[in-house]
Amino acid sequence: MATQTEHFLREHPRDPVKNVEPLRTCVERLAACAQACTACADACLGEADSADLVACIRRNLDCADLCGTAEQVLTRRTEANVVLDRAILQACVQFCEHAAQECGTHAASHEHCRLCADTCVLCAEACRDMLATL
Q: Pfam families attached here (predicted)?
């Protein structure tokens, strides 16, 4: 069953994507990553040891902001710019990897960090797959 994202990408009047799967997956995982990182940062703030999670909170918030922006940029298909798409995807890979690494250091004691790290890894993978199509 096609997702709403897929329908919009296929029906764009000026940029009907031929192979919609990598772009759809990337856009959806970027949105999921932004949400997961925001939720994880908030959960970290609620932890008793939140002072020990400052780096994790920062990495998550940075990753959430970048992934949210990339999701919006890649959804806009009119006059898409491959050079800029590449740049934002490469940045997302780096930010997702750093957030996943930082969350991974807390995953044993905080389930929200484990879930966030997993989501960041999936997002970085989707961004790499999308880069391969550009």
A: Csp
Look up the domain containing 31 and give its range: 20-133
Predicted TM-score of the model (pTM):
0.94
pLDDT (tens digit, 9 = 90+) per residue, 65-105?
Answer: 999 999 999 999 889 899 999 999 999 999 999 999 999 99
Q: What is the distance between the alpha carbons of residues 40 and 63, in angstroms, rounded to a whole number?
A: 11
The answer to the question of residue 14 being in a domain is no
CATH number of domain containing 76:
1.20.1270.360
∠ Cα 112 113 117 (to 5°): 120
